[in-house]
Design a protein that fits this description.
Elements (H helix, E strand, L loop, with lengths): L8 H4 L2 H4 L3 E5 L12 E4 L2 H12 L3 E6 L11 E2 L6 H6 L2 E2 L9 H19 E11 L4 H12 L4 E8 L15 E8 L18 E2 L8 E5 L4 E3 L4 E3 L11 E3 L3 E4 L2 E2 L3 E5 L5 H9 L3 E5 L3 E5 L13 E2 L8 H12 L13 H12 L6 E5 L6 H13 L3 E7 L2 H18 L7 E8 L13 H13 L12 E5 L2 E5 L8 E2 L1 H7 L5 E5 L1 E2 L3 H6 L2 E5 L8
Helix pairs in contact: 3-5, 5-6, 9-10, 10-11
The chain binds S-adenosylmethionine.
Length: 534
């Protein structure tokens, strides 16, 4: 395997381990509902991913990320607190404006490396990661992912058609595609679904050879990617879709909710259409692809997805993404967020690996932007009654609450999703600069962290019953922590615990001698010094 080297690689090799562990602080006023198990975290994902570790390590089924592409025009800043002279020189500098900064690829790799390592730790053994990228860093990203996830866990590079025609002003070649790299955490038998809705069996209803006729589609029959609204124009669709809509129509919740009368060179007659619809044939309308049908007898088979993602899979483009956000924010296209992805793309990817799962599965997006992944997860759950939960992380102050959370909140309201989310900020580090436990830290937070560092597994908070934290492989874990200087391990405390097997007990001081501890099967660990740092 070829190994990628870049300036700063050595300095960030263990950066994921050096990042201080911070606590998460829930902000009820910015949250929606209670106990939804969906989460939006405001903060740098390096710190946020670390903060999530005691709760989510090895638990995430699907990660989708859409990091800065390093185009030179994005204004992203490399700001990680890595203590190397080269990196200190870069800190806080906007990366690659006008492409002048020759180290912009190094900075991007330094930024991505520790984050991808943390993401890999969060994935389940049968977990899958999808990473969006374009030509600027596609080559580097492939080698980076090969290194972190191992080359043999590479599954595919999907090509997503992000615009229909591309700009004819392009100097040499019109770029119409981007990529999504896909890796598995380990060799596993996850089934990939490219099932009916995404099969290539959607067929156009209009063929050029037949004579023009009118067809009537009763309301609520047609699925559509068009945003909600009343379409007053009598002609709708680009000329090459060959459709002439003869009456105004209305779209709500991805359906045409009025009778829809269309003139075109249809192959089908009205009676054939009606009998097909009765048998379960589906009809879709999109601005770019016109009217298409998915025949009742051809689409039900489970199919492995192809590496091409396009309108054929009912996946929209950048334009659709912008229109989706605008329709939620009631603003002009483009005013709310640059470079969003369409929900259809993320639904397509997430469904690909979670379509057959009734269990609760976690979907993580640590470059959340406008919150498309949260919206996509809720929409998929509504469609197939699924039990997916999302975790989103967004760093930029103005974006996290006003765009990421606000978009998901508006989508919940508008589409009546039966869901909510908890909004969190990153709080202080668990340990202060002198290595002391932060006074803000609650008993449960400290207990969860200790259990995680001892066992590398996550703890159900409900199990905690002070001073008992939890049990793992026959060893019980205890934490005596009632505030500063009040945490002694005494003979009486041990008696009260009524131990039946080996135990590890964390406290400030131990007033029992070593022989006695050994006789009782107790290992004493002093806080804070013997709490391992993750
Ligand atoms: C290309 S956008 C993602 C767009 C998103 N997929 C959507 O559909 O809206 C990348 C996002 O990642 C955020 N971001 C960049 N660096 C980050 C970091 N270190 N931690 C968390 N978020 C970050 C940016 O602020 C931006 O909102």
């Amino acid at each position: 395997m070829a190994t990628l080297n870049w300036i700063g690689k050595e300095a960030v090799a263990n950066h994921d381990k050096e990042v201080p562990f911070k606590l998460l602080k829930k902000i009820p006023s910015a949250s929606v509902g209670k106990e939804s198990k969906n989460l939006i975290v405001h903060g740098d994902n390096l710190e946020a991913l670390k903060a999530l570790m005691p709760f989510y390590k090895g638990k995430v089924k699907c990660i989708y990320i859409d990091p800065p592409y390093n185009t030179g025009n994005e204004n992203w800043i490399y700001n990680d607190k890595v203590n190397s002279p080269k990196i200190r020189e870069w800190l806080g500098k906007v990366v690659g404006m006008d492409g002048e900064d020759l180290t912009r690829h190094d900075k991007w790799l330094c930024m991505m490396y520790p984050r991808l390592k943390l993401l890999s730790d969060l994935l389940r053994d049968d977990g899958i990661i999808f990473v969006s990228i374009d030509d600027n860093e596609a080559g580097n990203l492939r080698l980076l992912l090969d290194e972190i996830f191992a080359e043999h866990n590479f599954l595919a590079t999907f090509t997503w058609i992000r615009k229909k025609k591309g700009s004819f002003l392009s100097k040499k070649i019109r770029k119409m595609t981007e990529y999504v790299l896909c890796y598995q955490k380990s060799q596993n038998d996850t089934t990939f679904f490219g099932e009916e809705a995404y099969s290539d069996k959607w067929q156009p209803l209009v063929k050029r050879t037949n004579s023009t006729k009118k067809l009537l589609f009763k309301k609520n029959i047609i699925e559509t990617t068009l945003p909600d609204g009343a379409y007053k124009v009598s002609f709708y669709g680009k000329p090459d879709t060959g459709i002439n809509v003869t009456k105004p129509f209305t779209v709500k919740d991805s359906r045409v909710v009025t009778d829809f009368e269309v003139e075109a060179k249809f192959v089908w007659t009205q009676s054939f259409l009606d009998s097909e619809l009765k048998s379960g044939t589906r009809v879709s309308l999109s601005s770019q692809y016109g009217l298409n049908v998915l025949r009742h007898d051809q689409g039900e088979k489970v199919k492995t997805p192809s590496t091409l993602i396009s309108g054929e899979n009912m996946v929209g483009t950048n334009e659709d993404a912008t229109a989706e956000i605008s329709s939620l924010f009631n603003k002009e296209i483009g005013t709310t967020f640059d470079y969003p992805k369409p929900t259809s793309l993320i639904k397509y990817l997430v469904k690909m690996v979670t379509a057959n799962s009734d269990e609760e599965v976690i979907i993580l997006d640590s470059f959340a932007g406008s919150g498309t992944t949260g919206h996509a997860v809720l929409d998929l759950n509504k469609e197939d009654n699924g039990n997916r939960k999302f975790v989103l992380i967004e760093m930029v102050d103005e974006v996290a609450k006003n765009v990421t959370a606000e978009r998901v909140k508006r989508a919940i309201k508008k589409y009546e999703y039966d869901a909510g989310f908890e909004y969190c900020e990153l709080a202080e580090p668990l340990f202060d600069e002198k290595g002391q436990i932060n006074e803000e830290c609650s008993y449960n937070e400290l207990a969860t962290y200790i259990y995680f560092t001892e066992t590398q597994t996550n703890l159900e908070k409900k199990i905690i019953s002070k001073p008992f934290i939890g049990e793992s492989h026959g060893t019980s874990y205890y934490l005596i922590y009632a505030g500063k200087d009040k945490n002694d391990l005494t003979r009486v405390t041990i008696e009260k615990l009524k131990l039946t097997g080996p135990a590890v007990i964390y406290a400030d001081r131990c007033l029992v001698d070593e022989d006695e501890l050994e006789e009782k099967g107790v290992v004493f660990k002093q806080i804070p010094y013997e709490i391992k740092v993750y």
